[in-house]
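Now for a typical sample entry:
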Amino acid sequence: MVAVSNVIRFPEVVKDNYIKIENHGIIFNNRTSALIGSDGTIDWACLPDFNSTPLFDSILDYRKGGYFILKPVCDTEINQYYEEFTNILITEFIKGGNIILRLTDFLPTSKFSTINFPEIHRFVEAVDDVKLKLYFKPSFNYGKETPEIEKSKNGYLFHGTETSIGISTHFKLYKNKVMVYNNDIELKKGSYQWVVISTGINHLNRVDEYKSYERLEEARDYWKNWSNSIDYHGLYHKYILRSALTLKGLFYDPTGMMVAAPTSSLPESIGGERNWDYRFTWARDTAYVIEALSLIGLDDEATKFLYDLMNKINKDKKLKTIYSIDDSDTIDEKIIDYSGYMDSGPVRMGNKAANQLQLDQYGSIVNAIYRFSLGGGMVTIQLWDFIIDILNSLKLLWKYPDSSIWEFRTEPEQYVYSKLISWEAFHHAIAMGRKLGYSAPYAEWKNIENEIKDDVLKNGYNSDINSFTQYYGSTTIDASLLRLPLMDFLPVNDYRVQGTINKIEEVLMHDNCLFKRYNEDDGIKGSDNAFLLLSFWYVEDLIKMNKIKDAKNTLESILDLSNHLMLFSEEIDLNTHDLLGNFPQAITHLGVIRAIVKLNDKLKKIGKPGIVK
């Protein structure tokens, strides 16, 4: 039966030759992912790993980039959804109210992280007589290389300098210099075919040798068994489930690291320069990952991620802002000769922010371990020693100007949020260490905690505007301070806390409780849009201030801004509500989980569980 709420008209999928960001689903395994447009086009996939050079990347340049188009020749309506409790994606094409074609897309998945399936499997099912078109054009070295295309009885194999990619199929295809294609594939009602894309191979196998049915069952069992480990049965369960499945998909199992998003350079504003590569692990995100996963009973993932990251930091002998998901040297930023999504350049691979000082990274690590310990996580003596080392660095660094949580590429400042997170690190470390019975220089830590608090109260609060400011000496406000009520820095009803929230509402809040991060010029071309995580922080603030009705209404209005698959990007256009930025974004989905669980807990506590949605 067609889920009418998900139906999209075929012509509305594409805008200016690009599939709109929100008109995508995504499939995962435990190493990488692929974006699939709601018209059946794969326009982003890095194989075999998240940080590999993309083989399909037309989402960043529809002329030069690679793609795999498979869809009906005629215009249709489209219904796209996930098989329940999985990351297996189904796309249905509807004509005259009837389904004529169904695509089932998945990446083979195994519980063994050492098993690698650098393959995409596509099941093509003719529900009625249908005529298809297929265009298979992989990209090599961002379109700089023309591949050698080798025809075999099993399909076609494309050879590049660094890798190869094959398409195994029974469909009859033709080739030119850069692609294989067929505009006139006829399928009769009830017929079906598998198409398998495989990479890093020298020989192409028959399509049936990839054992797609078996791989599909394995993937289905993997995702359903994992979904059963989620311990949450409250409000908005479907959003919790989809966010959790998305976060699980963003982990790179061989090392336990997690990408912030699986894409690069999807713009935060159309035509602007805010285009970043997010296929890395941010130390800052650790706290959000640990707490969100722990809130829904995913203690194994929380524990593994924390200890894997600790081992990575210890190996490097210093805390860095950004880590590659493996030991490859992929962080250095370079500009790619692509036009960018809807001509939003430059297109960047790698991330220059790796070289910045961001003080909240240090505090976030300590706060992550604190949240982890509150949830019953095991804090070993080695992990405690790690905390002491982090604080030994932070006790010297907290006084320095930094680049802030927003990774400004301007001159460093004394950002108030960075100081607050530094204060919270010492505050939480003292409470955690004493509860665990571990020794530490508590008197020194307490002195530093007090010193930071005095410094922030003296230099970070502006009585003229009755608000804490973005940085010392500033008269501007920063939406990162939405976290202030969620800390123990001051009571939530303190006039300075309330004044700060009121000021953020006045200056940075827009319709639908969407927030800009800041208003001042940050030296980057193009205006900023609404940063979605901030709306979920605001929901938590409202809960903390006992404005429960407002919290519930706000949460529902933001959840309604997700796409047809309940997926979120990093930002959203303030005017059109189009999703913007890299997609799907881990930190936004972490915000979804935190806000929902905390609202659900509050409603249960006051005996008003609300209506399940």
